[in-house]
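Entry: Phage holin family protein
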Amino acid sequence: MQHLDKHLVDELAHVARESVRAELREQTRGRRRKAALYAGSGAAALYAGAAVALAVGLALDLVLPGWAAALITAVILAAVAFALRTAARPDTPGSPAAGGTRAAGSASVPPVPSTPPTVGTDRVPGTDRVPGTDRVPGTDRGPGDG
């Protein structure tokens, strides 16, 4: 009986492994195809961008010297690259956020007050005096009483 149970468990584990493998193969095949299509579209976009840059340079070459046309084209491409990088980069700590500036390495933390809060207490901050009187809390005497 024990041998039959062990055989059944081994067979069940084998079937489960094969089922998981087949499912993973199918998912991987679809993802590989999608990745290849993305890579192909990226390469085509790169060549299209190069052709546009060449066309801009040749158009500028009609009215300017060749070196000036190439320089202007390079500056335009650098500006586009900078704009795309800026648009893609998430807010970095220390850069101005929508609500103001943040300290480096900090999240949205409210500023720390310079004096401790006095709500719910009957003392003046930094002293043992009760506001509006010279009385020390917990006693019935003032500073001159001995």
